[in-house]
């Protein structure tokens, strides 16, 4: 079995630094979950990583959606719906885990890997192209620094989760 589930490559970059950095963090968390399952760390350890992955995903989606709003992205509603659908599926899984009706499995990991790969390569890259062409981004450079500072604080916080 491979050492990692999801090997990051620059081919996944969408051209927005904050988004690309967050995608790498999501991939890292997915790989941590894979390692916990593979190495039989136990359901409690796996669940903690899954919860961290779910929370970070929500934060990531909020940033993406904010960038879509400020750049007047025409595909916003569909993209946001994709985000909401995934969040609902993960929430349903967490509820099943809480009641003992499900277990964290390699099938779950495969689903998340396929979803993330497809979402980045299709939906996120379409948005990245729009964002690069967008001319209505006054103040983005300043806001980008604020986002970067916030996310650096988040990265610090995640280390202690």
From TrEMBL:
Keyword entries, A-Z: Iron, Metal-binding, Oxygen transport, Transport
Source species of the chain: Aromatoleum diolicum
Protein name: Bacteriohemerythrin
Top-level taxon of the source organism: Bacteria
Entry-linked InterPro entries: Haemerythrin_Fe_BS, Hemerythrin, Hemerythrin-like, Hemerythrin-like_sf, Hemerythrin_metal-bd
Positions of the Hemerythrin-like domain: 15-127
Taxonomic lineage from the root: Bacteria, Pseudomonadati, Pseudomonadota, Betaproteobacteria, Rhodocyclales
NCBIfam families: bact_hemeryth, hemeryth_dom
The keyword Lipoprotein is assigned to this record: no
PROSITE patterns linked: HEMERYTHRINS
Chain segments annotated as coiled-coil in the UniProt record: none
PANTHER family per record: BACTERIOHEMERYTHRIN
Family stated for the protein in its record: Belongs to the hemerythrin family.
